[in-house]
Amino acid sequence: xxxxxxxxxxxxxxxxxxxxxxxxxxxxxxxxxxxxxxxxxxxxxxxxxxxxxxxxxxxxxxxxxxxxxxxxxxxxxxxxxxxxxxxxxxxxxxxxxxxxxxxxxxxxxxxxxxxxxxxxxxxxxxxxxxxxxxxxxxxxxxxxxxxxxxxxxx
Length: 154
Hints:
It is a single chain. The protein is mainly α. It is 53% helix and 4% strand. It is globular, with a radius of gyration of 17 Å. The chain starts with 11 loop residues before the first helix and ends with a helix.
């Protein structure tokens, strides 16, 4: 994936919006001032891993998802031209990720990692395919959860 979009048309305001957003997130506790290119690269890497069959523990999975959460947090803070420039890369990655995961509202991942309202991409679900030797931890992700199953009297 080419992560070098044509950003030659960005104005000083566009570039400043990226710098300011990254700085604000760093001040809120993010490890450093990331770039959009860097985080989309991490997202592309994670999407490919999930498509191939995710092989790490739940903690690593939720940690890996923070790159997409960073992008979601930075998006409203940058100018429209910046969002437009990167959208053509981000949207297909999001679609591929959704196709490679089972959406369950965070129920399966939430068994091992605290999921709170507005938490971001951790609350979506987990990989459809796992290349691990510990399926017990990810067993709920291998099949869609049936919300009706929990409401039936036994």
